Every structure is written in C-alpha cells, then in structure tokens.
Amino acid sequence: MRCTVGVMVLATGCSFAAVQGPPPALPHDRALDCTSSPAVPILDGVVAAAAATAGIAVADQAGPYGWARLAQTDEAVLLFGLGSAVAVSAITGAIRVRRCRSAERERAELGIVTPSADLARDLARDGELAAERGDCGVAAAIAAQLRPLDATAYATYMRDIGVAQCVQFAAP
C-alpha cells in the first residue's frame, strides 16, 4: 500500500505543471502557445480515482480497535487528501484545456491564421542541421522565415550559438 501511495504522490498535480492555458491577450503574430490536449487532466483524473478507491479499501480494512486501525485510518485520510489534490489538478487542467480550445476557435473565427508550432519547430530543426553542416545561407533563410512566423520559436532558434554565428556570417 505504501508503494501505491508513493507512486500517487509522484503523479500528483501533473496538470498544474504540464498544462498551460492561453495568454490573456490572443497573439496575432505567432502560434497560440497553450495545451489543447486533455491527456494530462485525464491522467490526473485516473490517479485521483485510484487514490479515492485505495482510500476506501484501506478504510474498509481497518479493524474496530487498536493501533492498526489508527494507522490504517491515517493512510486512508492521506489517500483521500491526495486524491482530492489530484482531482483539483485534473479540474484545473481541464479548465485550461477548455480555455485553450476556446481561444483557438476564437482566433479561427477572427480569421487569425498562424502556422502550427510543429511547423516552426521543424523549420528550426532544419536550420540547426544546416548550421551544423555549415550551410549558413539556409540557416539565415530559415531565420528570416521564423521571425514573422513564431516569435518564440525564432528567439529559441537564435539562442543556438551555432545558428547565431552562422546567421551573422551569412548576413550581407
């Protein structure tokens, strides 16, 4: 039982850390950087349900008297508390995902079309490989494409020392 509690403690609150809601103001110049997948909140929900189930099982096994009952009651309370914390995380994550999807729909309705973050990531990866090969013209051309496409991806791309030197070298 303690192993189960340990695993659940490690899994606590994934949605708090891994699920990002949309920014307060919708960006028009870059891709929306938020989590639209419900996978992590669903995982948190499963962990919360498992903690609650384990808490019920431990509470049910507690005998009517003695120290064993007290220890099991403490474990049951711990499991219910853990389950509650993970449930709050799951709900928070689900709300963030819903807000992200709503923001994506709003941007589409306003006609704001920005390429996906995957495209920006792929371009940056291609540019980094080009810089490693010494093909600075390609690395610079990709930098020029990334800058208006996704400001965050561009900043990350230009922090790569090899890319920055290559782009500077290719500059007229």
Strand and helix layout:
Layout: H1 2-11, H2 14-18, H3 39-61, H4 66-109, H5 117-133, H6 136-149, H7 151-159, H8 161-170
Helix pairs in contact: 1-4, 3-4, 5-6, 5-8, 6-7, 6-8
- How much of the sequence lies in strands comes to under 5%
Instruction: Please outline the major beta sheet.
Output: none
Helical percentage? over 70%
Shape: elongated
Q: Evaluate the radius of gyration.
A: 24 Å
Element string (H = helix, E = strand): HHHHHHHH
Report the average pLDDT across residues. 82
Please give the number of β-strands. Answer: 0
For the record, give the distance between the C-alpha atoms at the N and C termini, rounded to a whole number: 67 Å
Query: Into how many domains do the coordinates divide?
Result: 2
Poorly predicted regions are none
* Number of helical elements: 8
Structural class: mainly alpha
Attribute tags:
172 residues, 8 helices
Description:
By secondary structure, the protein is mainly α. The chain has 2 domains: 2-109; 117-170, no CATH class. The protein has 8 helices and no strands. Helix 1 (2-11) packs parallel to helix 4 (66-109). The longest helix is centred in the middle third of the chain and has 44 residues, at 66-109. The N and C termini lie far apart (67 Å). The mean pLDDT is 82.
